[in-house]
Design goal:
The chain is an alpha/beta fold and 324 residues long. It has helices spanning 53-61, 130-135, 137-150, 169-178, 192-198, 211-214, 228-233, 255-261, 274-285, 302-310; strands at 4-5, 12-18, 28-33, 41-51, 71-72, 77-84, 96-99, 113-117, 121-123, 158-161, 182-186, 202-204, 218-223, 237-245, 264-267, 293-298, 317-321. The chain contains 10 helices and 17 strands. Helix 3 crosses helix 4 (169-178).
Length: 324
């Protein structure tokens, strides 16, 4: 390896791969060749990899963007830079980093090593473990880009976050609160105490209350539920308000209805974002953002992690511990 390194790096690595689309049982641990960083890239030894709904959706349908099996899943990375390619000045071997590299293509984070452009990473938040840092990138960047970059949440605005105890939701409510918003969050009644501890001003039990009938004069809605929920959420918005969906567009997406009602409805796809990661780290280090980790699994239990995630009953994030 011609790139600068900390020490000799193994030529092979463990990874979780799949040869076909299907259920969690298609995931298996393999020994494969370790990637080499190219120009402008870093090689990161993965300590933890977040597990996201996007992972099991890709696993089930067989690949993103036309990619077909075999492939290695995983978008979220927390780890240590082992080597840097030509031209990289942002990091050096030994740098502690986290990120969501290469999205929407998998970073292949269910592995002991990944490579990606250096600026798809940022210094991981001081004081967080690798497991906590590995839980953050995709969910936190989604919340940040939806609320800050897309909706431009400002102090005093009213923000409604659906699925507020979920992976994206629990981070979104904290980001909205840090922006000075009045936050309304939907979750089952059993999770309302948790929502209040995260800064939610008005918890709403979606099981017993009709959110579209009880919530009014909202400036921004973050929808992580989809389907008919997006159209119903338009009724909560005041004129000029914004609904941001983070789910792929479908026939139910209410763009025309939003226009007729004098509000904006947009779909947002999260992107790798060095500056966004830095802002998120700053919130963590200032004590204004904490990540909830529901469960941690070893790399070889990736299938079990997927089964847990597909129940839809997690609070916060699932994480694979790759390197102790």
């Amino acid at each position: 390896m011609s790139q600068a390194t900390t020490s000799p790096v193994p030529a092979t690595m463990r990874a979780v791969s799949q040869d076909t689309a299907g259920g969690p049982d298609v995931l298996k641990v393999i020994e494969t060749r370790r990637p080499e960083p190219g120009r402008g890239e870093v090689l990161v030894r993965v300590h933890a990899a977040g597990v996201n709904p996007a992972d099991w959706k890709v696993r089930a349908r067989g690949g993103p963007g036309g990619v077909t099996p075999p492939f290695v899943l995983g978008f979220d990375v927390s780890g240590v830079v082992e080597a840097v390619g030509d031209g990289v000045t942002l990091f050096r071997p030994g740098s502690q980093v986290y990120g969501m590299p290469r999205f929407p293509h998998p970073a292949s984070a269910y592995a002991e090593y990944v490579t990606a452009p250096a600026r798809h990473f940022a210094a991981r938040p001081a004081g967080l473990s690798h497991v906590e840092s590995g839980a953050l990138p995709l969910a936190a960047l989604t919340a940040w880009q939806a609320l800050v970059d897309t909706a431009g949440v400002r102090p005093g605005q009213r923000v409604l976050v659906h699925a507020a105890a979920g992976g994206v939701g629990h981070l979104a409510v904290q980001i909205a609160k840090a922006r000075g918003a009045h936050v309304i969050g939907t979750a089952s009644a059993a999770k309302h105490e948790l929502l209040r501890s995260l800064g939610v001003d008005e918890p709403v039990d979606y099981r017993t209350q009709d959110v579209a009938e009880t919530v009014r004069d909202v400036d921004v809605v973050l929808d992580a539920v989809g389907g008919a929920n997006a159209a119903r959420s338009l009724r909560t918005l005041r004129p000029g308000g914004t609904l941001v969906s983070i789910l792929p567009l479908d026939a139910d997406f209410p763009r025309a209805e939003a226009e007729a009602a004098g509000v904006r409805a947009v779909f947002m796809l999260v992107e790798p974002d060095h500056q966004g990661l830095r802002e998120i780290a700053r919130l963590v280090e200032d004590g204004r953002l904490r990540v909830l980790v529901d469960s941690v699994f070893p790399l070889e239990a990736a299938a079990e992690a997927h089964r847990r995630g597909e129940t839809g009953r997690t609070t916060g994030k699932l994480v694979l511990s790759v390197t102790p």
